[in-house]
Amino acid sequence: VRHTSADAYQYGYDVEKDYERALEMYKKADLADPDNKTIKLQIGWLYNDMKEYAEMHSQFLLYGYNDPEVCNHLGWAYLQGLGKRKDLNQAKRYFRRAAEKDSKYYYGLAVVCEKAGDKIGYFMNAKKCYETKHFLSHHLMALAYKDGLGVKQNVAEAEYHFENAMHYAKDRKVLNMFCYTGGFSIYALRG
After folding, report:
1. CA end-to-end distance (rounded Å), the chain
2. Residue 12 CA to chain centroid, in angstroms?
């Protein structure tokens, strides 16, 4: 019951969000059940919500090294410099660990390769992510074909993947954010 109550305060389920109260409740639950990895990881996610990234890192590194979602999150944290300095090598390491366990996380590896100027690595990881049919993988492929990242530029292929990204997207706002931060839209492709 404590764990569920802490979730309620963390996410605002039927109560007002209260991170401090949630943290207090999670810590009590952790003392009562010190072998429960789920509680320890939830404390890490709470620290993330609180923007206490150094504590998030500590919690995740201690208890989440084999969890692909946690490794993916650590990859993004290193890529963006949240709680630690920006470090493309560390980001790549965590993205690779996540992708080894769940191929949808090749998305992060593709982004790291793009940031490092590795066009071939970008395309290879985008293609691996694409095999999962995750909607953001179509976004990666669209950018690859639009910008010639590891593949010959091809506007028709870029359009095809952008349209599929729109089709598969559950949250159009998220997709639009990725597409516009990627510097293009379907309308720009059609010119």
Report:
1. 57
2. 22
Q: Which tokens belong to 167? A: 């089709």
Q: Are 99 and 119 within 8 A, CB to CB?
A: no
The CA-CA-CA angle for residues 125, 129, 131, to 5°, reads: 120
Amino acid at 55: E
Neighbours of 89 (CB within 10 A): 9
28: three-class secondary structure by DSSP: helix
pTM: 0.71
Vertex 121, ends 120 and 126: CA angle to 5°?
Answer: 100
What would the two tokens of residue 70 be? Answer: 């946690």
Residues 6 or more apart in contact with residue 59 via CB below 8 angstroms:
40, 41, 43, 44, 47
pLDDT one digit per residue (tens) for the chain, 191 residues: 445 589 899 988 888 999 999 999 999 999 999 888 888 888 988 998 999 988 888 888 888 778 898 898 899 889 988 888 899 999 999 999 999 998 888 888 998 998 899 999 989 988 888 888 776 788 788 888 988 888 999 999 988 888 887 776 655 555 554 444 444 444 344 33
Q: Residue 87 belongs to what H/E stretch?
A: none
